[in-house]
From TrEMBL:
A Pfam family that the UniProt record links to this protein: ADH_zinc_N_2
Domain Enoyl reductase (ER) residues, every copy: 10-320
Source species, domain of life: Bacteria
SUPFAM superfamilies per record: GroES-like, NAD(P)-binding Rossmann-fold domains
Protein name: NAD(P)-dependent alcohol dehydrogenase
Coiled coil: none
Length: 322
């Protein structure tokens, strides 16, 4: 089969379209014929092997699985011996390690039936980013009507879902994004927009009850100044912090400070689970959330798709189709 694979860690130039063996599912997995695969920043982290501390899990010199991609939507080809939830021919979406390929294996508990009103391309844009937004805006960070919510990175994969979810809860949403994206995030439901190239979030006009930072490149001290005295901060992005620990240092400082503050400072590493995918399915079918797709690339041009993610600040998600 065709797949986008790499050897050592590096930039997108280490990726190439290869012919490799079709994977064989374990007992708790299904083999999915990929109809579409999403691309998100987690692909970049695994491709580059940064932050370095993560290589303890990923592989010291190169990724344990050479094929990139997580988000997937497709058709079940075969099922493992212990899988009762799915059968061949089922249309599914979820997370499978190595989805930038014609086939991928995925654990059955990381898949769910494809939303009936979404195409395969739209469904492939949902799993990782949608689950992250749902898990971020839950518990103490779940907005209530008329609360003020700030979404940083609002035009990206996580942010587009977070804006829509917060609006559905009745919150007043301010979106932080780059130039030329104001109309885009307002169409998602944002009331106010901050262009980060012209204005910082601490303008003194507002304090926010909830801040979801899906960008990960602002100091904790700055985020706290924009947060209400009893507000909740969720750090769901870790793009800053250096090559060794990335955003982990900022997250640890937040955990250390939080018990001594009125503010709640938390971080999130999302886990794709069957029950969360079912929540996304319900929200999508109800029209509460709609995937925003920036561009769709064929598998043969997946390296260009990843380079676009690195440099292009896409509006919503990038999708690759075999």
């Amino acid at each position: 089969m065709k797949a986008i694979a790499q050897g050592p860690y590096g930039t997108a130039d280490v990726l190439e379209l290869r012919d490799i063996d079709r994977p064989v599912p374990h007992d708790n997995e299904v083999l999915v014929q990929v109809r579409a695969a999403g691309v998100d920043p987690s692909v970049l982290h695994l491709m580059t092997g940064k932050p370095y501390i993560a290589r303890l899990a990923w592989g010291l010199r190169k990724p344990k699985n050479p094929v990139r991609g997580w988000d997937v939507a497709g058709v079940v080809e075969t099922v493992g011996a212990k899988v009762a939830r799915f059968k061949p021919g089922d249309e599914v979406f979820g997370s499978g390690d190595g989805s930038l390929a014609e086939y991928t294996c995925a654990r059955a508990d990381k898949l769910a039936p494809r939303p009936g009103n979404l195409t395969f391309e739209q469904a492939a844009a949902l799993p990782v980013s949608g689950v992250t937004a749902c898990q971020a805006l839950s518990g103490k960070a779940r907005p209530t009507p008329e609360q003020k919510v700030l979404v940083i990175g609002a035009s990206g994969g996580i942010g587009t879902y977070a804006v829509q979810l917060a609006v559905s809860y009745g919150a007043e949403v301010t979106a932080v994004c780059g130039p030329g994206r104001a109309d885009f995030v307002r169409a998602l439901g944002a009331t106010d927009v901050i262009d980060y190239t012209r204005q910082e979030i601490t303008d003194g006009k507002h304090l926010f009850d909830i801040i979801l930072d899906a960008a990960g490149n602002r100091p904790l001290s700055l985020l706290r100044r924009a947060l209400a005295p009893k507000g909740v901060l969720v750090m769901a992005g870790g793009e800053g912090g250096g090559d060794w620990v990335g955003g982990l240092g900022r997250q640890l400082r937040g955990y250390a400070l939080s018990p001594f503050l009125g503010q709640t400072l938390s971080s999130l590493i999302a886990t794709v689970r069957h029950k969360d995918l079912l929540t996304l399915k319900r929200l999508a079918e109800a029209g509460t959330i709609t995937p925003a797709i920036d561009r769709t690339y064929p598998l043969s041009e997946a390296v260009a798709a990843i380079k676009h993610l690195e440099t292009g600040h896409p509006r919503g998600k990038i999708v690759v189709t075999p």
